[in-house]
Amino acid sequence: MGSPNQKESITCDHGTFDLSWTEHAMGNQKCLRLKVKIGRSFQPIPLLEKAGDWAFAWRGRDDGFLTLAIDALVLVSEADRMKIGRDPTLQWFGGHTFYNEGAEEWGDLRHGLWFLPAITWKLADDQSILIIQSLSHENDVASEMKACLLSALDEAFGGQDQAAPATPRLIERHDIPNRKEWRTSLEAAKKGFRDGLFSKVVMSRSSHLQLDRGDSWLFWLSKLLEYREESYVFAIKSPDGHCFLGRSPERLLAWKDSAFQIDAIAGTRRRGPSLESDQSASKELQLSAKDLIEHRYVSQYVANLLKNLHLHAEKVDDEKILQLTHVQHLRTRFQGQLTQQCDAFELLEYLHPTPAVGGLPTAPAMEFIRKHEASDRGWYAGYIGWCSQNSGECAIGIRSALVYRDSIQIFAGAGIVQDSDIDAEWDETEMKMQNFLRCIDDRAIQGHEADSGQAEATVQR
After folding, report:
1. Residues linked to residue 174 through DSSP beta bridges, in sequence order
2. Is the pLDDT of residue 446 over 80?
């Protein structure tokens, strides 16, 4: 390679490809980037099967492109990314946990993090882009990168006939908390309302499924990718085998240059089995005083925050219905302009956690959640996505799960206000777990139907 912006062609068994080289500043280092366009698409799961290091998958909510980022050249904290992730082209992948630190069961995913990948695939319906990146300054780095490119092409073209990941079998289900304990925690929340501690608190629970085999993250990812709806699909896998993945409808923040967008989503109903019942559920949601109050806590919080940060914004939609596969929500969308005083990275810090995943006021709601939730949230209800200096997009990590060895821990939450019905909120969280529960068999769903006085809800076979 003669210059950092050189173009050349390379011929291999799979055809002739045009290569584009660029060089990018990254703090005190330089990143060499090799990009090639390929006139066909590939199945994503085979491309991820040999990912032993960090791996990331992301399908946008609006554009449908699927991005795979494999192997970390650099792994940094949120604070360090803000210092060195300032190139307009280089994309970082990662996110942040709900609290500053997760429990030990999250392994390498205990903390929020961002990484710059060595290999990136961008997959569309009729074409792909492959990007190889290196921080090496050795004389033969270009040759090594071309060798890596050819190896990646061999694996991509040769691995598309592999069988889909096998469906794991359920051994046992354990709900944390069980239904009796859920009632106790929500009754404590209702006392908090009466005592004037908060006006909304979001309570979550998890369902732990023990499976008959380990390392099932690619199976779950393949199932999430089958959905075609207005949701993000995401997965981040660490070298120690922990994987956080899900399918979230909720955009926390998206930005391009100075323009930004934010969602406020709260208020839920089940999708109806018929068109008539579905429309009836939508109308009921839009007229529900309880759901409107819950939703407006979130939308008003976002509006006030943007005003206090002196960011001009307007509502694109106000309390419109967002319909997903299993549930439907109230959604208000904001769009506005960033400023030199408040860029996207700073706005992210101010935004999270919104009352959609925490509560209002934030501090007492967060303290209540810490005290009364039995499961550590980890990345659940944190945020996850990608970013460069000039653009990025982060979703709230809901409708999600932690996969590790022979288990999957599925998370779901519900916004609790003074008029909430405790049993209805349990049922709502069960609906939100269907991203994963529907992938096993009907017996995986029966745990929530156990008698509420039992010590725990389990399913055995």
Report:
1. 208
2. no
Q: Is residue 460 part of a domain?
A: no
In whole angstroms, give the CA distance from residue 260 to residue 272.
Answer: 34
DSSP 282: H
Q: Give whichever of 58-67, 134-143, 358-367, 449-458 has the largest mean pLDDT.
A: 358-367
- Residue 456: per-residue pLDDT: 39
pTM: 0.92
Confidence of residue 451 (pLDDT cuts 50, 70, 90): very low
The verdict on 123 and 45 lying in the same domain is: yes
Torsion angle of the four alpha carbons 324, 384, 112, 369, in this order, in degrees rounded to the nearest 10: -30
**Per-residue pLDDT at 164:** 81
Range of the domain at 413: 170-449
CA distance 85 to 90: 8
CA 212 to CA 402: how far, in whole Å?
Answer: 16
Where is average pLDDT lowest: 260-274, 318-332, 379-393, 440-454?
440-454
What element of type H or E holds 439?
none
- Buried-state track 74-105, b at ≥16 Cβ within 10 A, e below 16: bbbebeebbebbebeebbbbbbbbbbeebeee
Unique residue bearing structure tokens 């006006």: 199
Residue that has been written with the tokens 């009836």 in this structure? 280
Asked if 384 and 345 sit in the same domain, the reply is: yes
Contact (Cβ atoms closer than 8 angstroms) between residue 56 and residue 94? yes
The C-alpha atoms of residue 46 and residue 35 are separated, in whole angstroms, by 20
The terminus-to-terminus CA distance of the chain in angstroms comes to 60
Tell me the mean pLDDT in the region 429-443: 83
Q: What is the CATH number of the domain that holds 413?
A: 3.60.120.10
Q: Is 203 a domain residue?
A: yes
Look-up of token digits 């090799």 = 34
| Closest-CA residue to 409 (of 143, 28, 82, 102) | 102
Helix (H) or strand (E) holding 382: none
Q: Which residues contact 28 (CB under 8 A, 6 or more apart)?
A: none
**Can you tell me the distance from the alpha carbon of 17 to that of 310, in angstroms, rounded to the nearest whole number?**
48
C-alpha to C-alpha distance for 107 and 134, rounded to whole angstroms: 27
* Whether 289 contacts 449, CB under 8 Å: no
Q: Tens digit of pLDDT for each residue in 319-332?
A: 999 998 888 999 99
Average pLDDT value for residue range 256-277? 92
